[in-house]
Design goal:
By secondary structure, the chain is mainly α. It is built from 3 helices and no strands. It has one domain (7-56). It has helices at 7-19, 24-33, 40-56.
Amino acid sequence: MMRGNDEEDMADAEFIILHDRIIKSQLLEAFSQMKPIELAELRDAFERAKPVVLKLARDSH
């Protein structure tokens, strides 16, 4: 996710999310516990990727 909405990163994220059956609430919890990303370029890329990753996750088990 650190490269933004990168095709390879999103394919990897999709595989992990589907394989491990990660749901949106788990992602939101993980995002809320993250330490702030200091480098603006990485922070911006992460913020661009977040909605894409959340769409990959299911709403509940």
